[in-house]
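Quick start: read one record
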Amino acid sequence: MANHITIRAVVYPFLPEHAERIFSGKDIVVKYLPHPHVAYNKGAKLLIYISHSAKNIVGEATIQDIDFLPVEKLLKEYRNRLFLNEDELMKYSASQPGRVFTKPLLVLKILNIRRFKKPIVLPFSPTMAGRYLSNEMYQQIIRALA
């Protein structure tokens, strides 16, 4: 019988100014992934990791919905709710050689966004692709808040 680990959370790195936008209510987070699928489900936690300077987890949100949309449709549906402004989104979309604007981005609709009172130092550094966390790993991180 194979062991199956349920993914409880995902850690994605954000620039400090992008994390601030999330905390101010921008509830649509996008990311290019190599493949159009993720190993977590609705209800998983998104841990907000500051990728520059302090390199800490500074907050979390609940993933309400998961979708994959190309840039044009993303802007049409969520322009005012995106954590990136339109110029940043266009630069991000064009930042990789061979990436086309028709390639779908991961779209996370988040809710219950909360900033931690104290940042949490991780025992690892997540890559730009992020890091999945099992329930046990997530609980270890959250216990650091106590």
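The CA atoms of residues 64 and 110 lie 5 Å apart.
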